[in-house]
């Protein structure tokens, strides 16, 4: 009987420790001043303000470790994301002040100001370190360069076109 009680107590303690999560109510650690993505550490989120000039863009990019919620504060934005293979379907919408849009984790997405004034938005990301991969920079500005032959075949263009694009990055 004593062995059974001891075993139950031991298992209870083991499960309690295995299931415990770190408390987000610990002392808060604010972001370092030099960080490119401001965040409140230990909460698992980050936010960014996005200012886009008239007809400007936030180019196609992805966040490999977070979904994004975008809230338009001022102006008009065209936003969209592309679903994964095989469909590669564009889901897009024109957003006005007060509208919200969600970009799923890892999918390529963009924003474009379609108005005549500046557009301002707040992006909330579900990670302290969401990462960002800007598609054109990665493909055409990698170090060392991706082979011109590979990119010409992938984009179905002449090698000189690929060289011209790579020279801009």
Automatic annotation (TrEMBL):
InterPro entries, per database record: Cupin_1 (IPR006045), Germin (IPR001929), Germin_Mn-BS (IPR019780), RmlC-like_jellyroll (IPR014710), RmlC_Cupin_sf (IPR011051)
Binding site residues for Mn(2+): 61, 63, 68, 109
Keywords: Apoplast, Disulfide bond, Glycoprotein, Manganese, Metal-binding, Secreted, Signal
Keyword check for Calcium: no
Main location: secreted
Family: Belongs to the germin family.
Protein's name in the database: Germin-like protein
Organism: Eucalyptus grandis (Flooded gum)
């Amino acid at each position: 009987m004593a062995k059974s009680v001891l075993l139950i107590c031991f298992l209870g303690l083991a499960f309690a420790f295995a299931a415990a999560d770190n408390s987000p109510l610990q002392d808060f650690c604010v972001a370092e001043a030099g960080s490119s993505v401001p965040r409140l550490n230990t909460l698992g989120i980050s936010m960014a303000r996005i200012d886009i000039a008239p007809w400007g863009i936030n180019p196609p990019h992805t966040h490999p470790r977070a979904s994004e919620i975008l809230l338009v504060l001022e102006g008009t934005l065209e936003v969209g994301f592309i679903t994964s293979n095989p469909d590669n379907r564009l889901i897009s919408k024109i957003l006005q002040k007060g509208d919200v849009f969600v970009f799923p984790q890892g999918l390529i997405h963009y924003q474009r100001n379609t108005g005549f004034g500046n557009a301002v938005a707040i992006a909330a990301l579900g990670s302290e370190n969401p990462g960002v991969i800007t598609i054109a920079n990665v493909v055409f500005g990698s170090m060392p360069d991706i082979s011109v032959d590979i990119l010409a075949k992938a984009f179905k263009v002449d090698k000189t076109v690929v060289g011209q694009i790579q020279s801009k990055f």
